[in-house]
Amino acid sequence: MTPVPMDALTALLTRQSISQVGEPGPTPAQRDNILRAGLRANDHARLRPWHFLLIEGDARRKLGELFVRVTLEDRPDFSREEQEKLAAKALRAPLIITVVARLQASDKVPEIEQLLSAGGAAQLMMAAAHAQGVGAVWRTGWLAYDRRTHEGLGLTANDRIVGFLYMGTPKGEAKPLTELQVKDFSSSMK
Question: Is CATH 3.40.109.10 what the domain over 20-172 is classified as, yes or no?
Fold first, then answer.
């Protein structure tokens, strides 16, 4: 049964990371909505400094092999058991959306703004997933920032991975939302 999408404000106020997901992944319509939401990120000068690399099916196994290969270059003593555990991390979700910042030379828009824009795209995709009942968690780790990982994924020297968005059907119950108070995270300029 496909969940009924929630309104935007409810999605924003109730979104949380769901680390345990499984099959099935997002439907084609859900995936399209998720990707289209990412395209609405704030974007100074309309540079559109993002790219979304979808990894699913057997490509997830290749991602896990890439993670192991890069790690072994730094740690030749990386045990077989550790290699298998690391490779399996790429199989934790049916769909992984790799959010990439495509940095462009600009006198008007510094790289940090372009990175933030790609981060905004990732956050909008996370909210769109939640709004449709798709479980998702944003993961990084040192491998996300290593040039060898970028090269293994066919990225260019100007590309930066912002995160791996793991998406699928939520497993089990979501943790209760932590109640946060706006006053604890805001102040007024005097």
Answer: yes
**56: which 2 tokens?**
């699913």
State yes or no: cis peptide before 5, omega within 30 of 0. no
Instruction: Flag whether pLDDT at 175 surpasses 90.
Output: no
Q: CB-based contacts of 138: which residues, under 8 Å, 6+ apart?
A: 17, 122, 126, 163, 164, 165, 166
- Could you tell me the residue ranges of all domains in the chain? 20-172
pLDDT-based confidence at residue 172 (cuts at 50, 70, 90): confident
Asked if 67 and 149 count as a contact pair (C-beta separation under 8 A), the reply is yes
**What tens digit of pLDDT does each residue of 60-118 get?**
999 999 999 999 999 999 999 999 999 999 999 999 999 999 999 999 999 999 999 99
Q: How far apart are CA 167 and CA 137, in angstroms?
A: 7
DSSP state letters, 136-184: EEEE--HHHH-HHHHHHTT--TTEEEEEEEEEEEEPSPPPPPPP--GGG
